[in-house]
């Protein structure tokens, strides 16, 4: 498909942020986005680079009432050699297709998705920050646009990719997080939408997240919907535990997001001959391990933070400290290796890195 | 709050639908809507009647990514005396406030909500259809509009009320529905969003709903998320069973929508001294009752259909017929009474009907 370019004239472009140490996350957006439309019977049409600006939606657009929506999160960044890189974009494209299937939505063709993304990145190369740890966050989003108030699968969709510079996640080095173990509220149940990257899971997380933030916690650890014992995931990350030297994380059984950083961490552990298992682990097992001095490390994995070490869990009013209160060896090694591969400082034996330009 | 009126000139108004027997549902919208904005620190501002038209949203608007949204469904209609009426609008306003609390959203002030709705109805009185059983469907909707890609509670919102004429639900009389009992997919879990009228629950229902429609069923009956045994609700309705003359429906324990028609049906049964109980009922109990010849009736309750008799349930490949395959006495009596009260044909002992003009 040909991509039409509706570019702003040079004098209409926004100034780039001056301070790359104050970018924050998800507040600054580049001058253009990639977009295309889906119409029942026509398929994907109108691939284009458009100026970033308001989307006009009918007040009855299905996304505004029934949440038919899926998204992705990726990053582009400057490598050591001055080239622009992506990390495992094909994995995000595949996951979005899986999310689409769960939400009864037509997946964007993978070649057009990647081509549109590449074209946008070439157009907005000037928005990719250069300070250490910074990157250009990429948000592919797809929304149901048909105007209808009956609950139905939409006939029409808008797919767009927006980008914006984001700051380093750990400008002052790793800061172990405090996690609240949630027993009352639930993110996703078996048979629900937990494995899809879709609005509903995030809407379900807001109330418990607000409560945890007010009480000084960084994130909420979700337990399974039924017994409230099995560990699922942490807010925007998958969760790993290192117990007796074994790395353990929840299996992909439908209620948790199949994280791409999660997969990268598992792959690297296997590559290093570190025992790693994807199995159900309960909060009781974690508490017992801590009591026995066997809870070496705990960390989250996700696109934004890559690896996020956990300092403590709070469960039923009791604080469960992790390891020695410092970032563990495996957490550090995974962070260094994944970011090293991303930035081209280390070899890329799995072919994870894709050069944009 | 003063409501600003931005009305279209008479020559810009759409023609009204000519055939009131072909209105369908949720496809035709009146010329104007009521809207107001919420800004953190300012509260609700800019109450207005605007021409119906596209809403301009930032591509990063939180509703488009994380589903922070709540809505309601109501109807306005002509009564027997030629007046325009609403049915229990204060109950919808209260439910929307409860939905807002669950989604961390500021509830619209109830007086402004009702005033805005009344002003819109007076403006669009010409859109209320007159054919028997038709009405003006009312959709209050509230969406998170802040532009931010970090998962957060929005600082800004848009609240709007849109209206449109809808057809009679049973133009040819009651048609008992075929219901598919869903064992794999889940609508809502304890600790989830089930009792809020919010996008996430509808997004979760799409896949199973599509599958059921393809196989010829009208609706999906949801079971509880954990044991898949306890009956929750049917798609867009609450579910009632009449067993041995007792009317039973699921209790409001957090996973089902607290239906206003559900409450009206319970109130009327009590008023008539028909035994009615809000308690957990399992699909096994329904099957056993049917086998013993004690399953007299089953029906859904909701704003659109009012009362929707069920002809059969299909569970694990077996069809469970209900009663004698005809609409039961209690289903019929509730339908006649509620619609009779709505249309002003019967006395209104509970003060459910509100005159608009």
TrEMBL record, chains A, B:
Pfam families linked: Aminotran_4 (PF01063)
Entry-linked PROSITE patterns: AA_TRANSFER_CLASS_4
SUPFAM superfamilies linked to this entry: D-aminoacid aminotransferase-like PLP-dependent enzymes
Gene Ontology BP annotations: isoleucine biosynthetic process; L-leucine biosynthetic process; L-valine biosynthetic process
Enzyme class: transferase
Reactions listed under catalytic activity: L-isoleucine + 2-oxoglutarate = (S)-3-methyl-2-oxopentanoate + L-glutamate; L-leucine + 2-oxoglutarate = 4-methyl-2-oxopentanoate + L-glutamate; L-valine + 2-oxoglutarate = 3-methyl-2-oxobutanoate + L-glutamate
One GO MF term attached to the UniProt entry: L-valine-2-oxoglutarate transaminase activity
Enzyme Commission identifier(s): 2.6.1.42
Residues with the N6-(pyridoxal phosphate)lysine modification: 197
Keyword tags: Amino-acid biosynthesis, Aminotransferase, Branched-chain amino acid biosynthesis, Pyridoxal phosphate, Transferase
Transmembrane segments: none
Protein's pathway: Amino-acid biosynthesis; L-leucine biosynthesis; L-leucine from 3-methyl-2-oxobutanoate: step 4/4; Amino-acid biosynthesis; L-valine biosynthesis; L-valine from pyruvate: step 4/4; Amino-acid biosynthesis; L-isoleucine biosynthesis; L-isoleucine from 2-oxobutanoate: step 4/4
InterPro entries in the record: Aminotrans_IV, Aminotrans_IV_CS, Aminotransferase-like, B_amino_transII, BCAT-like_C, BCAT-like_N, BCAT_family
Keyword Signal: no
Keyword hit for Amino-acid biosynthesis: yes
Cofactor(s), names only, from the UniProt record: pyridoxal 5'-phosphate
Source taxon at top rank: Bacteria
CDD domains: BCAT_beta_family
Function: Acts on leucine, isoleucine and valine.
Protein family (similarity comment): Belongs to the class-IV pyridoxal-phosphate-dependent aminotransferase family.
Protein name: Branched-chain-amino-acid aminotransferase
Organism: Dethiosulfatarculus sandiegensis
């Amino acid at each position: 498909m040909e991509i039409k370019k509706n570019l702003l004239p040079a004098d209409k472009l926004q100034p780039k942020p001056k301070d790359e140490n104050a970018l924050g996350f998800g507040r600054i957006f580049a001058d253009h986005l990639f977009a295309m439309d889906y119409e029942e019977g026509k398929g994907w049409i109108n691939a284009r680079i458009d100026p970033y600006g308001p989307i006009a939606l009918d007040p009855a657009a299905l996304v505004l009432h029934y949440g038919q929506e899926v998204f992705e999160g990726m990053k582009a960044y400057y490598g050591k050699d001055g080239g622009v890189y992506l990390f495992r974009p094909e994995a995000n494209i595949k996951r979005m297709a899986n999310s689409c299937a769960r939400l009864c939505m037509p997946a964007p063709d993978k070649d057009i998705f990647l081509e549109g993304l590449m074209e946008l990145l070439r157009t907005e190369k000037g928005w990719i920050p250069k300070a250490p740890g910074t990157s250009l966050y990429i948000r592919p989003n797809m929304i149901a646009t048909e105007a209808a108030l009956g609950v139905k699968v939409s006939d029409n969709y808008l797919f767009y990719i927006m980008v914006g510079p984001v700051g380093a996640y750990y400008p002052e080095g790793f800061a172990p997080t405090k996690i609240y173990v949630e027993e009352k509220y639930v993110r996703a149940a078996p048979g629900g939408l937990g494995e899809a990257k879709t609005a509903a899971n995030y809407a379900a997380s807001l109330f418990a997240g607000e409560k945890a933030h007010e009480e000084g916690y960084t994130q909420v650890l979700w337990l399974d919907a039924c017994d409230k014992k099995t560990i699922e995931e942490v807010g925007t990350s998958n969760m790993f535990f290192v117990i007796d030297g074994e790395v353990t994380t929840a299996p992909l059984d439908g209620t948790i997001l199949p994280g791409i950083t999660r997969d990268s961490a598992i792959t690297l552990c296997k590559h290093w001959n570190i025992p790693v298992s994807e199995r159900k682990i309960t909060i009781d097992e974690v508490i017992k391990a801590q009591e026995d001095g066997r809870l070496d490390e705990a960390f989250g994995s996700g696109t934004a933070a890559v690896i996020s070490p956990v300092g403590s869990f709070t469960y039923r009013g009791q604080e469960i400290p992790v390891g020695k209160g410092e970032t563990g060896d495996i957490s550090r090694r995974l962070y260094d290796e994944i970011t090293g591969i991303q930035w081209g400082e280390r070899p890329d034996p799995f072919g994870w890195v894709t050069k944009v330009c």
